[in-house]
Amino acid sequence: MPIIDLHCHSNISDGVLSPRELVARASANGVEILALTDHDDCDGLCEAGSAALDLGIEFVNGVEISVTWRGRTIHVVGLNVDPENADLQGGLGSIREGRAKRAREIGDALSRAGISGSFEGAYAFAGNKNLIGRTHFARFLVSNGYAKDVQSVFRKFLVGGKPGNVSHDWAKLSDAVSWIVASGGMAVIAHPGRYELSTEAFKSLLCEFREAGGQGIEVVTSSHTRDMAIRFGDFAKRFDLYASMGSDFHSPEESRVDLGRLPLLPEGCTPIWEAWKAGN
Ligand code: AMP
Ligand code: MN
Ligand code: MN
Ligand code: MN
């Protein structure tokens, strides 16, 4: 089986490496098929694709779309999308506008908690001024001594009930899937183990996702234990979904799993790359 990584981030969203640096690192790690999946933005795909061509890696145009489903944030990865597609571009543009507004609100909330300058500070950490996220706030807060690392800054400041938490409505699940499908891509539920959904709620999510045209689920990802990979592999089989795998790599310092350093898919899963190799 080739070494495959279908989920990672460059500094076009909240990763730290440029798209070219990211592809070079993947290549050095022996990755043979790589998808760049920045949050809500396709601007890194051209540079990454050209670096992949230079280095002889198969490259997949990807994106990770932020969705609100039943009041929770769910991420949907699109693979083999067309970044020029107008539906996709329009949808991602509207999410980025929402991000800019949310960033003001996070900055205001942190100001009320006695932390000033976080809005400007977060922007200084953003490689792409059109895409601002909580990780940029986290890096600002760590660099100013409010927490020892990005993980703990999230726990202390940026999640539900904490001073920098603001509620936000992302795209609708059916819209995100339809933009991906309209652009010729396949939609994949990202890191399902992170949502803490009951089995019943998760089954409803998969039903709605399939009805909207979704086709895959991440089975192997850095936030899954082996037991979780087996459990979500079983869901993939039962719901007739393709299985995907990706590190969700963001940074050499912050990410536990490096590009391409993932275990194999559990037995019996149908790998998503077989679908596009077969021309489905
Ligand atoms: P956003 O889309 O701006 O709300 O930011 C979500 C991103 O924050 C995720 O893609 C991760 O990169 C990062 N993130 C979320 N939760 C945590 C956490 N508990 N620890 C570290 N990073 C996190
Ligand atoms: Mn991220
Ligand atoms: Mn995600
Ligand atoms: Mn991700």
SSE topology sketch:
Elements: E1 4-5, H1 19-28, E2 33-36, H2 45-55, E3 58-69, E4 72-79, H3 86-112, H4 118-125, H5 134-143, H6 150-158, E5 171-172, H7 173-182, E6 186-189, H8 199-212, E7 216-221, H9 226-238, E8 242-246, H10 272-277
Parallel strand pairs: 1-2, 2-3, 3-5, 6-7, 7-8
Antiparallel strand pairs: 3-4, 4-6
Residues 14, 39, 66, 133-135, 150-151, 154, 250 line the site of adenosine monophosphate (AMP).
Would you write up a description of this structure?
The chain is built from 10 helices and 8 strands. The protein is α/β, with parallel strands linked by helices. The protein folds into 2 domains: 4-92 and 170-277, Alpha-Beta Barrel (TIM Barrel), CATH 3.20.20; 99-158, DNA polymerase, domain 1, CATH 1.10.150. Helix 5 packs across helix 6. It is globular. The chain starts with a strand and ends with a helix. Residues 9, 14, 39, 135, 250 line the site of one manganese (II) ion (MN).
Question: What would you give as the CATH superfamily of the largest domain?
Answer: Metal-dependent hydrolases
State the helix count: 10
**Main beta sheet, described?**
8 strands, mixed
Overall residue-averaged pLDDT value: 97
In this entry the ligands are: adenosine monophosphate, manganese (II) ion
The global form is globular
What is the top-level CATH class of the largest domain? Alpha Beta
What is the helix content? 40-55%
Unreliable sequence segments = none
- CATH topology term of the largest domain: TIM Barrel
**Helix/strand-derived class?**
alpha/beta
Rounded Rg: 18 Å
Total of domains: 2
Total E-strand runs: 8
CATH-derived architecture of the largest domain: Alpha-Beta Barrel
Tell me the series of helices and strands, N- to C-terminal. Answer: EHEHEEHHHHEHEHEHEH
Terminal CA distance: 20 Å
- What is the strand content? 15-25%
